[in-house]
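Workshop exercise sheet. Pairs work together: one partner reads the sequence aloud, the other fills in the structure field after running the prediction. Swap roles for the next sheet.
Pair: D.N. / O.F.
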Amino acid sequence: MKKIISFASDFGLNDGSVGVVKGVINRVDPEIKVNDISHGIPAQNIKYGSLLLMRAIQYIPQGVLLAVVDPGVGTERNPIAITTDWGVMIGPDNGLLNLACATVGGAKQAFALENEDWIIPHEGKTFHARDIFSPFAAAYASNQLKIEDFGKELNLEDLKQYLIPLTDISDKEIKGEVLYVDHFGNCQTNISPEELKEKNFQVGDVINLTIDNHELKVKWCEAYENDNERDIGIVVDSWGMVSFFVSNGNASQLLDCKDSSKVKIKIENSKLKVR
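Structure field:
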């Protein structure tokens, strides 16, 4: 049975790169289905891509993940394939794939993409998505190439890792950071609702929040709706993490906030109950 390829990249849709990669896949086998996850990952942002894949992998069909955010393309970093209980993940060895792997139970094996029968020869070394990743993904998805024939097996401990930063919690404050800014300007943090509840916060409370240099009082809301439209609020987002938002607005633009912006919640004398 042929496998579906789910494809994510930072290529955008303006210069034809996505179409070329999908064209290579369908030249290997016209019947392979390609599911586009996103091609709007910010350019060269491995962290953003890694988090996006971690979320997506829980909902996309099992098979082959082809993921390309590759600022080191053409350098000594390995093009790799990782086997998991979910399927096979193909991309650069730069930390892009490890959170998705962990989400589905961890990596089982990893292989370098070295089989020259499936590498498109080219003078330039700056488009591995076309020349290496996509032909290997297509060959595997169409059952023309076994995973053990990709190339040499790699030591899993040598693979590059991206790790989600941990919060720093004391009696006086919770320190975290913004992990991810979505299309609407909502800013997801690495703070969990459980961490707020452990400090006796609950929905409806107004909380003292500092984002970079902005000191705010924000309401913990049940959805993306606040009492006043232009006020910052916090909410448990669809991925189960604490995010801050503006109703019908863009919190990221309003606060000049981006991924890695520092977030601090005061615990002492922080809570005010909304009446």
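Discussion prompt: The chain has two domains: 4-158, 168-273. What would you look at next?
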